[in-house]
Amino acid sequence: MNARLEGLDWIAADWGTTRLRVWAMGADGRVLARAGSDRGMGQLDRAGYGPALLDLVGPWLGDRPDPVPVLVCGMAGARSGWAEAAYRAVPCAPLDPASATRPDGADPRLSVLILPGLSQSAPPDVMRGEETQLAGLIAARPGWNGVACLPGTHSKWARIEDGRVTAFRTFMTGELYALLAGQSVLRLSVMDAEPDLPAFDTAAASGAGLADLFSVRAAGLLGDVPAAAAAGRLSGLLVGAEIAAAEAFRAGAPLALVGAPALTSLYARALAAWDAGDPPLIFDGSEMALAGLTAARAALTKVPA
Question: Which among 59, 108, 140, 232 counts the fewest CB atoms within 10 Å?
């Protein structure tokens, strides 16, 4: 049996479609250790979640008299995940740990709770995982009101008012890029290249959006356009179209970007071409997920975060 990790109080877990990230947490809020794997929801059946979690956190446990609390956000709570954690309808606070779901199949040394996602009836929409990042944003900036943009495969734009999520919208920008660059005629121009930033900037600022997508291919047929420039143009057109479509939802409110640094930097570049106001606040998505999980743990134990 492995020796237990000294000071381990609880474990935070962010379970995405492609990745699982875990943090060993001390009672004082310090991160004692962290680990990750590519065993996201897309690689697992229901019976695989318990072993996937244990593979990462097992070395921290040792022979413990009491189970270690584990708080999980993300796709482990999806209908096809470990155990379905029912959505909570907005407007509401982003997290309610008392509504968490306890799955079967966890190691007896672990006491696992999966946090629920959020839903919206009109227009129909759901989020799972991003609500925890929003809770982290609220914890990091108490009293902040505005709109948070969480770029990704399915980008979320969420309105935050007085610590509650009042509405949100989803844009399939990342998935559209992957489909167009990998399966459409545009693949012949993009060819898996990394987007060129000047080409991205020009396309994002153009406002052409979906109306100009075929020009990515046509420009390559009519001239010598590098694949990186084609990729940059395609990315810029799609991100620019998302930002334009979200303008009415945002309605001039202060903006925060929450996500992977590579994506938030791209969105910040595109926003600079559209918005003459204050630049957005920028937060690392992984750090905000951990901050949200920490706030949820504090709520469960009634200890101030």
Answer: 108
